[in-house]
Design goal:
Two copies of one chain form a homodimer.
Chain A lengths: L2 E2 L2 H19 L4 E7 L3 H17 L2 E7 L5 H13 L5 E4 L9 H7 L11 H9 L7 H12 L8 E5 L6 H9 L8 E5 L6 H5 L4 E4 L17 E4 L3 E4 L7 E4 L4 H4 L5 E2 L6 H20 L1
Parallel strand pairs in A: 1-11, 2-3, 2-4, 5-6, 5-7, 7-8, 8-11
Antiparallel strand pairs in A: 9-10
Helix pairs in contact in A: 1-10, 2-10, 6-7, 6-10
Chain lengths: 288, 288
Amino acid sequence: MAAIIDGKAIAAGIRARLRDDITRSGITPGLGIVLVGDDPASRVYVARKRAACAEVGIHAEVIERSADIALDELLADIRTLNEREDIHGIIVQRPLPHHLDALTVTSAIAPEKDVDGLHPENVGLLLIGQPRFIPATPKGIRELLLRSGNDPAGRHVVILGRGPLVGKPLAALLMQRGPGGGATVTVCHTGTRDLATITRTADVLIAAIGKPRFVTAAMVRPGTVVIDVGINRIADPAAPTGTRLVGDVDFEAVAKVAAAITPVPGGVGPMTVAMLLENVVEAAQERR
Amino acid sequence: MAAIIDGKAIAAGIRARLRDDITRSGITPGLGIVLVGDDPASRVYVARKRAACAEVGIHAEVIERSADIALDELLADIRTLNEREDIHGIIVQRPLPHHLDALTVTSAIAPEKDVDGLHPENVGLLLIGQPRFIPATPKGIRELLLRSGNDPAGRHVVILGRGPLVGKPLAALLMQRGPGGGATVTVCHTGTRDLATITRTADVLIAAIGKPRFVTAAMVRPGTVVIDVGINRIADPAAPTGTRLVGDVDFEAVAKVAAAITPVPGGVGPMTVAMLLENVVEAAQERR
């Protein structure tokens, strides 16, 4: 039976350290969160980030805009945040309504305040190996691997998914030279042939595809470390709400063959929030 | 016996097309080449680029500076090129002397003139999947694969090397959605364990590590397409100069098992130059 990598507990420890760091520094880091429209999941995520900010002593300010906001107005909001001295980090909650080009919006954020690490310049610095801000989910996954005794160096890491928030930046991060890097990295996706053959060569298997319980036990070689990035809501007649959250991995079955595994919820999710907070604190320290 | 992928012939065809494009457009594209110090290999490469520019009708201007140039002076040279209307592309030949930080120098180039695609913003746009300029060597490799009937889509591409000029941008390029992408990509490097086991899973094996004849026949599964990016000068008593160029692949032995292979010289090298020219032409068209 696999060891459970307890992201919730690890994230709590990181938040406690950040709270101490902030108290000691005497500076209140500020995070501007732009929320466009009323996607229910986005509201939940923003509320969670806000609560986590409050817990550690970051001033979080949510700027809510309606789904039909014009691009220019949104860019003006970002410019205002760029100029504010008390705001050290800026994030724009995704997904954005279709009429707002995500790249244009992200590119408007001052790179030194782009704590999501999604501005093209910051994405480039990550691939070059001299990151300014590492995107929160990849950073959280690296932290989970290191803290659970699974240093990626020299291991074969197979990533399922080539998305802009996880798959691609994670591949860049884990293949780098230096501490926390050094993995041999394979990126698989919808176009991959013989997927199970490849996943069975993994020392570390990371699923970030958004397909509920896609990774089965047959795809995992005994002894593999499995990181589940997926957060999918599925119908569950037995649950009080009629639904429940599952990952991209069939947890019950895979836990029987894996050496270690992250649960959903309580694995990568809390780490993503903790790493965002860490990036905001780093941004505030950098400014000073 | 492997088919030989003739980069020299393919590159000649591309140069002919570019020459026609330039004649038809009535605009002379301009390339500024900054050459610092007197590294003999750099001089050879710059001379080759200059000759190729002349052939297709690009105005190339080489700015030579001594190896002890101060960073500020070099940055001033780049700023001057950034502002010139007749210069559409700028490259700084690498390697630079150690006192000049490559990232600082590259970041000074206006992103819309950065035809090497090495500015962090352009590196980021490549990883995001919306490239402005694709670095010449990865672009040339993709072209070689497509033109030799080896579309990377759905294939397992194993890249040896995680350098900033080839390995990392090539991985980003070949894993993208859309034409010329769609590969399952594995990046191997000095820290990779059981290298031969991984290389033998490749449909396409690309060597970019700078180690003469490192890839042996035992590392290649029959039927693999092999792309050799290495250019290494080794001693050869039988040669008139006492040396000769070899790639990262043991060509004679690997050609017996591979389905197709690029020679050195005459494979990737000419394509790199042709793709640089193409980027300069694109930069000039973009400006108009």
